[in-house]
Structure to design on (199 residues):
């Protein structure tokens, strides 16, 4: 029952926002009593923490699955972008913006948890792109990882709608890749930007 509550709460939080969804809403959606929810979660903040943990796991499992496929480094970045678009398509509100605004302590925990895993994923992608001749060989990888991380997470925390967030993230991804790309990398980037799924 606990996992079902987390799953339903996560779905509602991503669709309607962390602030606007109440324990009553979750109970009503699940046709259970609010008392049942409080048996597992003594307050909404704990449920939000569990919910963000579930989203974190789902995101990184999907990223690992994409990384295990035989995409080139630039295509891999766009596949991850598509995955994010699909995962957060149901909501108008940006979940990260809502968290930062209404639950800053939880937001800070989420960001510190993401730091290591995202940095590792970004670094692996850049190293792969260099091996494939899509990114320049003389890049300072740690600096570029830091640039991209800062760009992406400032977008997450400041874009109030999911539509705005998705648009800015795509711009940031293009900016990031253009800064690193070889001539072959630019050709691959232009090919990926033609994909209608991203618009």
């Amino acid at each position: 029952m606990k996992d079902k509550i987390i799953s339903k709460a996560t779905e509602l939080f991503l669709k309607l926002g962390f602030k606007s969804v109440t324990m009553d809403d979750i109970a009503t959606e699940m046709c259970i009593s609010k008392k049942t929810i409080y048996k597992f979660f003594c307050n909404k903040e704990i449920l939000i923490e569990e919910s963000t943990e579930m989203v974190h796991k789902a995101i990184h499992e999907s990223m690992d699955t994409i990384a295990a496929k035989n995409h080139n480094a630039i295509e891999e970045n766009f596949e991850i972008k598509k995955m994010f678009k699909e995962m957060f398509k149901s909501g108008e509100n940006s979940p990260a913006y809502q968290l930062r605004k209404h639950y800053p302590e939880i937001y800070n925990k989420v960001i510190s948890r993401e730091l290591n895993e995202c940095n590792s994923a970004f670094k692996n992608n850049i190293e792969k792109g260099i091996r494939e001749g899509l990114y320049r060989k003389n890049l300072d990888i740690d600096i570029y990882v830091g640039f991209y991380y800062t760009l992406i997470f400032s977008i997450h925390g400041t874009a109030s709608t999911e539509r705005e967030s998705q648009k800015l993230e795509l711009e940031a991804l293009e900016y990031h890749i253009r800064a690193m790309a070889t001539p072959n990398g630019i050709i691959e980037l232009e090919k990926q930007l033609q994909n209608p799924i991203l618009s």
User: Anything to note?
Assistant: The chain has one domain: 2-198.
